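Reopening this ticket.

The earlier resolution said the output was attached, but the attachment link was broken on my side. Pasting everything inline this time so it's all in one place.
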Amino acid sequence: MPAPESRSTGEEITPGAPAWKTALTSLLDIQPPSVPERPQVMTALVQFPPGDPGTPPHRHSGPVFGYMVEGEMLFELEGEPERVIRAGEAFWEPGGDVIHYQDGNNREDIWSRFVVVMMMVPGQPMLTLVDEEELAGRRHLRAPRSG
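Inline output:
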């Protein structure tokens, strides 16, 4: 009998076992600080061409959960240092008052594609841009940046 295959999670796959027993791999397991009451939920594919800076600073009315399908994203939330999210990685943001500063394509040679599931307050836009005056007033909440 051949040896069971192994997954990166360390789980073993036994030949002939029902696939549903090993089909699920947890990518992100968090408890958001809040979820809007009776939220409107949207799932979207976001695609940025090579080198695109992405969406200007913005916020969402509720939490956002994402999965990087292809490429890399330069990701920065208010109070956290910027970081790179790579294909195969999951990410999230709490929404509400927190500013999302960066979501641009971190690569100059390939597209950046990610899927997001957004839980929004009904009747509010899924994304609201933050104006320069508010950015200036909250500058002290932004994490120090490299360079």
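Reporter confirms the inline version is readable. Confidence is low (pLDDT under 50) at residues 1-9. Residues 62 and 95 are 4 Å apart (CA to CA).
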